[in-house]
Design goal:
mainly beta; Methylamine Dehydrogenase, Chain H; 4-stranded antiparallel sheet; 2 helices; 28 strands
């Protein structure tokens, strides 16, 4: 999407930027006071877009942006550019071309913004109570949206926001991956009654055609450089105060050519991993308690159980700069931290972001 260069557009943008400093003063609760103004919207961006959940029912979700070229962090960019709050609980982001689809869970909507300016392009309002979690594009102008506390997910028109169809996949579907004409959906199940399957949905019929059994509470799914699907399962809790009656979490690897599990890493009972990221060179990382664990996607073996120590909320590997980006939610009420590590796990930089930073999306430069 190209930014207009006509006179009225330039005057409008100039007015926006005169107001930015005022907006940033109002956003002190979610902003780094030393942060510069958001980048010029006429310059294509390349960097890291962070969804900060904010407190539940507090309506203080926000977006932060780290400029990869300057290293500058800008907080509250959605509000600064658009003049209003993002909403309640920013859960995830999908980027397609020059648009970012920001899923705002408890506001039951998806904000579609330009990655070149952070200006709102449109808002997709979902039915009340939808509680959207994640979104993935089919590549044909429509996409799928998973929902919290529901056994249905939506197919929506990405341009109009209209509901196209619904698909029964099971309660609490989470992340998804499109593989040719099929959709692999992690279905976590309900608290106390966790599910242990990945649903396979035909994108032609929008019907579940098969299920693959994995560990309890599958939530995260990533594709490695060989096309295999890695599913991270959190495991199930029994008595919350008795870890010995939990079921183990771990990684289950699915071959989409055969729809079977071909390997797995099963962790110790009482371990409940979260947040999976896979590199394009045979590596992968997930959070497990007070550490980030590294494993090899080729051998499907743990290579470093404590690659980085610390209690983190999200981890993402950037294949463009070969660095690990980690989000620390801190006390879950104050602004959190973005921490950047090199491939050896050595900290390189950290930045203050918004309240409960929970999701990272990497933006590539577009001209």
């Amino acid at each position: 999407m190209k930014i207009s260069d006509n006179k009225s557009s330039r005057m409008f943008k100039a007015g926006i930027w005169m107001a930015i400093s005022a907006f940033m003063m109002l956003l002190a609760c979610e902003s780094d006071p030393t942060a510069p103004e958001p980048p010029d919207p006429q310059i294509p961006l390349s960097g890291v877009l962070i969804a900060n959940e904010g407190g539940f029912l507090q309506g203080n979700a926000s977006l932060s942006f780290l400029d990869a070229e300057t290293g500058a962090i800008s907080n509250g960019v959605f509000t600064a550019i658009n003049g209003e709050a993002l909403g309640d609980v920013a859960n995830s982001i999908m980027v397609e071309d020059t648009l970012a689809y920001v899923v705002v869970n408890n506001s039951h909507k998806i904000e579609v913004i330009s990655t070149n300016s952070f200006q709102r392009v449109r808002t997709i309002n979902l039915p009340a109570g939808s509680s959207p979690r994640h979104i993935v594009s089919r590549g044909d102008g429509s996409g799928y949206v998973t929902r919290l506390f529901s056994d249905q997910m939506y197919q929506i028109n990405l341009e109009s926001g209209a509901l196209v169809d619904s698909v029964n996949v099971g309660v609490n579907a989470e992340e998804m991956i499109v593989d040719n004409d099929r959709l692999f959906v992690t279905v976590a199940g309900g608290f106390g009654s966790e599910n242990n399957t990945v649903a396979i949905v035909s994108t032609a019929s929008n019907a579940v055609t098969d299920e693959v059994q994995v560990g309890d509470s599958p939530q995260w799914i990533r594709r490695d450089d060989n096309g295999l699907l890695h599913v991270l399962c959190a495991g199930a809790f029994g008595d919350f105060y008795d870890p010995l009656d939990d079921t183990p979490g771990g990684v289950w690897v699915i071959d989409p050519a055969t729809d079977t599990v071909i390997d797995s890493i099963v962790l110790a009972v009482g371990d409940h991993p979260s947040e999976l990221t896979v590199t394009d060179e045979g590596g992968a990382y997930f959070i497990n308690g007070g550490k980030i664990t590294e494993y090899n996607t080729e051998s499907v073996e743990i290579s470093n159980e404590t690659f980085i120590s610390g209690f983190f909320y999200h981890v993402a590997y950037n294949n463009f700069d070969d660095k690990i980006y980690v989000l620390d939610a801190g006390d879950f009420t104050s602004p959190g931290q973005l921490i950047i590590y090199d491939e050896d796990g050595v900290e390189e930089a950290r930045h203050t972001v918004g309240v409960i930073p929970g999701f990272i999306s990497f933006l590539t430069k577009t001209e």
